[in-house]
Design a protein that fits this description.
globular; 48% helix; oxidoreductase activity, acting on the CH-CH group of donors; 15 helices; Butyryl-CoA Dehydrogenase, subunit A, domain 3; alpha+beta
Length: 460
């Protein structure tokens, strides 16, 4: 809850107020940025910067980003349906929902990942029909849905859940092509919170072993014949649009990882440097080299996210600002790799005590404490407790769901990014560029773009 609370506090605290507030043209007043619809590249840059800054405050995931990305995805997809097909009911419903959310500063969970069952089968082919969320009944006043969404960040503490399709669909999958929003306390909604690495320590009391005491959670969201009124339904059996949901949402979320993961990287780099100082090795060349490499990897992730933000494009006639899909995928692919290397270097600097340090209970024991203070101390000017605190902070951040597992699987696995990169990078155009320089009489590319990139599906 402390991490979650930070997203609300940020709009009022001096060092984050400028990043955490934005003007909403939909209600004519300032709103918390976590419920804001991006109005240009500057907003997307502010998103990345805010996430990095918030990571410094809590040392973990703060759990509102998925719902925020879901709002922006819905704005674009429902807007595109209105523009391309002239059907404005989805867009009008969404705008009313958006105003409702913004005026109340509601916290949203975004629910995209289905449990998926047999991964080689489409939703309509599953032996368990509920392996993907689907419509089981249509009523005059709404629909009834059934299924489950997995690994939903922050789901136990949000006000509402925004559900989206998780993959491209065919006509046979139409009942699975559904998007809607429901309050968390809607009848039939069940949440099963998952376990996390090191989570028990935070419940043991004390003030060292569980550092940082702000932490995140994910859960299994079960929808057991849940009724959704029509005014909360934003896609219904329009299977051709399901892939747009996935592409637009996933790229928003991949871009955002540049902020939160670089922010956590700052915490890990800072803890590593602090430990090196307490051991008297901070100025040694091999340690300086490791710290420099960690900084390079961290800033590379961040830079890619900023590039994805500044190179944004408008997908609707009236707004709908989306990230650059190539650079968003590059961002997330770096994030899938670099946190593990940053953690490895941090563990190298910290030493074996990172995984074997005495418990806080032993350190508080009056008989043991003088001995531990004597034998765990490095440079005399730093008390042993400082070393223990930094060790626990480093352990619980660098060996965590928020920094490692989420970096690989959040917003799609590494293979999903590679598929996107392959689709966008235009090898034929690159060959034409090379062929002209090689004197093979190839025609130069006709357009003025510097990058040999194809448009993503959402841009076509």
């Amino acid at each position: 809850m402390k991490a979650f609370k930070a997203t609300f506090d940020a709009a009022f605290e001096e060092d984050t107020r400028g990043l955490a507030r934005a003007y909403s043209p939909f209600i004519g007043e300032e709103v918390n940025r976590f419920v804001h619809i991006h109005q240009g590249p500057e907003d997307l840059v502010a998103k990345v910067k805010l996430l990095r800054k918030l990571s410094h405050k809590v040392g973990t995931c703060f759990q509102r980003c998925v719902g925020w990305d879901a709002l922006n995805t819905l704005y674009i997809v429902t807007g595109k349906i209105a523009e391309r097909e002239g059907r404005k009911e989805y867009f009008n419903r969404f705008l009313e929902y958006l105003k409702y959310v913004q005026r109340r500063d509601l916290a949203l969970a975004g629910a995209m990942t289905d449990v998926k069952g047999v991964r080689t089968l489409r939703p309509s082919e599953q032996p368990n029909r509920d392996a993907y969320v689907h419509v089981v009944e249509e009523r005059a006043d709404g629909i009834v849905v059934r299924g489950a969404k997995a690994n939903i960040t922050g789901v136990a503490v949000v006000d509402e859940v925004v559900v989206m399709p998780t993959r491209a669909m065919t006509e046979k999958d139409a009942e699975y092509a559904v998007s809607f929003a429901i309050p968390l306390d809607t009848p039939g909604v069940k949440v099963v919170v998952g376990r996390q690495l090191n989570d028990a320590r935070r419940l043991e009391g004390g003030e060292i072993d569980g550092l940082p005491y702000a932490f995140n959670h994910e859960g299994l969201l079960i929808l057991d014949d849940v009724f959704v009124p029509w005014e909360r339904v934003f896609l219904y059996k329009d299977w051709r649009w399901a892939s747009q949901f996935v592409e637009i949402f996933s790229n928003y979320h991949r871009q955002g990882y540049a902020g939160c993961k670089s922010g956590l990287g700052d915490v890990i780099i800072g803890a590593s440097y602090g430990l090196a100082r307490r051991l008297g090795i901070a100025d040694k060349p091999h340690v300086q080299e490791k710290l420099t490499e960690m900084a390079f990897l961290n800033e590379a992730m961040y830079s890619a996210g900023l590039a994805a933000s500044w190179e944004a494009r408008k997908l609707l006639r009236d707004g709908g600002w989306w990230v650059n899909p190539m650079y968003a995928n590059i961002t997330k692919h770096l994030v899938a790799r670099f946190p593990y290397e940053i953690s490895r270097l941090a563990h190298d600097i910290a030493g074996g005590l990172l995984g074997t340090a005495p418990s806080e209970a032993d350190f508080r024991n009056p008989e043991l404490r003088p001995l531990l203070e004597k034998y765990l101390q490095g440079v005399p000017e730093f008390p042993a407790e400082e070393r223990l605190r930094l060790l626990r902070l480093l352990e619980n951040t660098s060996l965590s769901v928020a920094y490692l597992i989420e970096s690989v699987h959040g917003a799609g696995s590494p293979q999903a990014q590679r598929i996107s990169i392959q689709r966008i990078y235009d090898l034929q155009r690159a060959e034409a560029i090379a062929s002209r320089l090689a004197g093979l009489k190839a025609e130069a590319p006709a357009d003025a773009k510097a990058e040999p990139h194809r448009p993503a599906e959402a841009e076509r």
